[in-house]
Amino acid sequence: MIVLLLGxxxxxxxxxxxxxxxxxxxxxxxxxxxVVDEADADHAERVAAHRHRRDPAWTTIEVGGDLAAALATTxxxxxxxxxxxxVTARWAEEPVDLSPSVAxxxxxxxxxxxxxxxxxxxxxxxxxxxxxxxxxFREALGAVNLAVAAVADDVHLVVAGRLLLLQRPxxxx
Length: 173
Description:
Distance between the termini: 27 Å
Strand order of the largest sheet: 3-2-4-5-1-6-7
Number of strands: 7
Mean pLDDT: 91
Oligomer: single chain
CATH superfamily: P-loop containing nucleotide triphosphate hydrolases
Largest sheet: 7 strands, mixed
CATH class: Alpha Beta
């Protein structure tokens, strides 16, 4: 089972993901894609809060941009936090074509034996980015979200900690 949780900043998506993962068969592995910059006190504080509320029985792996490889080698259930920071880690210094990485990610999600909860930022509902880099990031993450949603069993939008199940489009034959 693959569940994708989309939501805006501070929408409660991470907490919902942790609750869903806690109900999955153990062992649970938390795959963290954020590369923590200790100089960014706000980001470091947010990551610390996530770490603090995580189930101590879970294994945490800080994967950065190597998410597909980590998914392929992780047994049991997995929680991926998050695709937005994964895109950032993949770009590192400069935006690159993510198509091969997205294909690898989707293949790893589909072929792994355990259940997976994936968290991602919904970037299409926010303010139009004022910079070219922001617009490229929004487009890249939007494409990643579309690809993962296509292979997910369920996709939910999280707003204020509440879930809204998103239906697949019905296509007329």
